[in-house]
Amino acid sequence: QEGYLLAQKLGFKKGEILCMQSMAFIYAITGEWVKGTELCYKGIELSKKYEPLEELNFYIFLAVIFQKQNEDAKSLEWLLRAKKHPLFIKSSVRYVLWVTLFLLGQEYTNLNQLDSGFFYGKESYDFAMSHYPNEELGYSLWVMGATEGKRGHFKEAIDYLQKGISILFKNDYQFSISELQYEIAKVYDKINEPDSVTYYATLSLTGANKFHNLLLIKDASALLAKVLAKTDIHKAFEYLQISNQTQDSLINIAKIKQL
């Protein structure tokens, strides 16, 4: 925020745009989606005028914001806009190319277009191997694991996800590790291994609370409520309350957005 205000004062447009991107990313992952959306639209207009290549980053942040609100069709729309943008391939920021492939994999998987989901997950993995053989590989494995889980290839799904967690752990990406832990918990739920579900969902919920990831708090606590319903009804009810309260918070955020 301070850097943004300083850049505005100095008339340093690129600095202003870069600070807007940083703020938009923070808003996207912390649930302040109204602020993030407004900032992205403003950033798109400013980028068109002064830094055309930076426009693509705001498309990506909008895709993430819509994804976090379970609006996968809108998220996919912005990703396809980025991919079809005339400056996409020319982008000197190779990270833009990778993250677009990664998010396309996520969204096609979320929309149950599993062949496309795995295709883009693998494309992002191969791109990362060539350019970013670090944490990006972990994210790409997340997509491939989630897709395999939906396909019913449970062994492969767990393998991909555990490898992804290992890579992210080495690079200290705690925020995303909790997302993969939830993904593994869902796979174990499908193969009826409640102890493993409880273990990974609890880890996921701990991480979600730490980073104020409302959507993940809702989902992980709901999964814990489901799996514990047969063995610890009181604990299950506590988790169900957490999930419902978080859902109410998400609904209120959506209402504010509509206003």
Mean pLDDT: 91
Radius of gyration using CA atoms only: 19 Å
Bin the helical content. Answer: over 70%
The number of strands is 0
Class derived from helix and strand content: mainly alpha
Query: Which regions are unreliable across 5 or more consecutive residues at pLDDT < 50?
Result: none
User: What is the 3D shape?
Assistant: globular
Instruction: Give the biggest sheet.
Output: none
Question: What would you note in describing this structure?
Answer:
- The chain has 259 residues and is an all-alpha fold.
- The protein has 13 helices and no strands.
- α6 runs parallel beside α8 and α8 (135-151) runs parallel beside α10 (174-190).
- The radius of gyration is 19 Å and the shape is globular.
- The two termini are 25 Å apart.
- The model has no long low-confidence stretch (mean pLDDT 91).
Give the secondary structure arrangement, pairings included.
Layout: H1 2-10, H2 13-30, H3 33-50, H4 55-68, H5 72-84, H6 94-110, H7 114-131, H8 135-151, H9 154-170, H10 174-190, H11 194-210, H12 214-228, H13 233-258
Helix pairs in contact: 1-2, 2-3, 2-4, 3-4, 4-5, 4-6, 5-6, 6-7, 6-8, 7-8, 8-9, 8-10, 9-10, 10-11, 10-12, 11-12, 12-13
